[in-house]
Amino acid sequence: MIVVARTTRDVLVVHGPEAVTWLQGQLSQDVAGLAVGEAAPSFVLAPQGKVAGWGRLVRTAEDAVQIDVDPGAGEAWAARLERFKLRTKAEVHLRTDVSAVSVRGAQLPGWLPAPVPSGAVPGCDRVDAGDGALAEALAAGAVEVPAEHLEAERIRAGVPRWGAELDDDTIPATVGQWVIDASVSFTKGCYTGQELVARIDSRGGNVPRHLAVVAIDGPPPAPGAEVTVGDAAAGQVTSSAPDPSGSGSVALAYVPRAVELPAVGRVEETDALVALAPLSPPA
Q1: Where are the domains of the chain?
Q2: Residue 51 has pLDDT above 80, yes or no
Q3: Residue 283's pLDDT band (boundaries 50, 70, 90)?
Q4: Which of 6, 51, 72, 204 has the smallest number of Cβ neighbours within 10 A?
Q5: Which CATH architecture has domain 209-278?
Q6: Could you say which of 2.40.30.170, 3.30.70.1400, 3.90.1150.30, 1.10.540.10 is the CATH number of the domain covering 3-157?
C-alpha cells in the first residue's frame, strides 16, 4: 500500500563560493562528491564525535547545498555550523516548519529518497511542497493518511529522530550500522568529529547499546517507559506509535549489548508483552 501525508521539515540552505569546501570538512558525508541534484544523509558532529545533527543533503548547485532536518532540529544545526564558519565565504540560512509531503511505499521520480534501512518500506519526500505534490502522489496511487501513520512507519524502519533517538549525547554507531553506511564517507578525508566514528568502525561497530524495534501487544507507552527482559532492565522507549493495522503498537528502544535479540519482554507502564528485534541489516 502506498500512503502519503502532509509533514514539515526544517530547512537550511548553505551557499557561497566556499560553501561546499567548507561543508566537506564539517559533515560526515562526501559533500563534494555529490552531483547537482543528488541527495544523501549526513551527520554533523561535535568535535568529540557525538551527534550535533542528522539530516538529508541535496546538492542544489555547484556552490549551494540544501539540508532538510527533523522539525525542531534546524536551530541546533545552524548554531553548530555557524560556530565553525569563521571567515568562510559561505552563508547559512534557516527556515523552520517548512511544509512537505511524504510518501511511503513507493519512490516517485524527482522526489527526494527517504533514508531507510534494507527491508524497510521505500519512501520519498518533497520539501517546500503543498497541494500540487499531494495531488501528484494521489495520482500515483497513494492514499492520504495522518502524519501519525508515517511516524509508525519511521519507527518500524528504525529511522532515528532528533529529540528521540538522537540528541547531543548520542554516539553515531548506536543508531544502527545502516545509518553509518548511508551517512558516513570513510574515504573523503578529515571532518570535524571523525576520530570517534573511525575508531568505533575499526572495532567492528561495537557500542554499549544499540537501537531495537519493539512490537507491543497493547497501547503505545510513553517515551522513557522501561522495557524488561526476564528480570533485567533492557532499555527505555524512545519513540512509540499505534500500529496502523490496528494491532498493538510499535516503538524504538536502546538495548544494552548484553541483551541478545530477538527477545521477548514486557513494558512497565501496562505490563504488556513486547517482542524486541534488531534493525534490518544494510544491503
Answers
A1: 3-157, 209-278
A2: yes
A3: very low
A4: 204
A5: Beta Barrel (2.40)
A6: 3.30.70.1400
Q: Cβ–Cβ contacts within 10 Å for residue 261, how many?
A: 15
pLDDT digits (tens, 9 = 90+) for 178-194: 999 999 999 999 999 99
> In this structure, are residues 8 and 62 in contact, taking their beta carbons and an 8 Å threshold?
no
Q: Which residue reads 541535496 in cell numbers?
A: 58
pLDDT tops 60 at residue 60? yes
